[in-house]
Design goal:
Elements: E1 9-23, H1 28-36, E2 42-56, E3 60-64, H2 71-79, E4 86-91, E5 95-98, H3 111-121, H4 126-140, H5 155-167, E6 173-177, H6 185-200, E7 204-208, H7 212-218, E8 221-226, E9 229-235, H8 236-244
Parallel strand pairs: 3-7, 3-8, 5-6, 6-7
Antiparallel strand pairs: 1-2, 1-4, 8-9
Helix pairs in contact: 3-4, 3-5, 4-5
Amino acid sequence: MTNQTVAAPAVVVDGARKTFTLNHALSLKDTFVSWIRRRKLTSTFEALKGIDIVVDEGESVAILGLNGSGKSTLLKLISGVMSPDGGEVLTRGRVAGLIEVGAGFHPELSGRENVFLNAAILGMNRKEIEARYEEIVAFSEIEQFIDQEVKHYSSGMFMRLAFSVAIHVEVDVLLVDEILSVGDAPFREKCRLKFEELIAARKTLVVVSHDMDMVRELCTRGIVLNKGEVVYDGPVEGAIDRVAS
């Protein structure tokens, strides 16, 4: 009998549901009329309707669909930024999300200080950060500004440093949401090569993007969402065709 290595699940989404409460902006007059008539000033939106997905270790998966289909919400559930209202989401190993790049940056701190702060938020300890620090700064291409407060950075500088920190975190599962367009063309190419390194190292990659060329290059599997439900799960080319149709 030959021994075959079976990939273990890196992400399991089991019946996950998520509903948001929407507050409607009304004029003072409309608000008063609604109060008199006892109408609700809020409504609910079911972003995910019982999603079932398993992503194995080492897989590169694209989550596709039209705006409002639930892609970013699903990624936030996997990252732990949000909790499902029903079902469960399980992950194996260290998970890092390039979802809201730079969310942990403090404008009054220098770039150097923010590297340590944001890397710690993303799960790295001080020894790991110190070992990767020079590589992070070099990748960002803002070495000469690293000791300036980030409130003085341009939006491009800010995003490059934040992206560089996130991409250098030692992770098992990397989640990416529509931020592959960071920086100019040479920097985007460098980012693409970094993703390819992670894929070659058998890291699990889950990508939300409208850039179908990038999706083709990075992913082998595509999952298409429509109104909070999975309508396709299979080879990435089939997913791209499904979204285009």
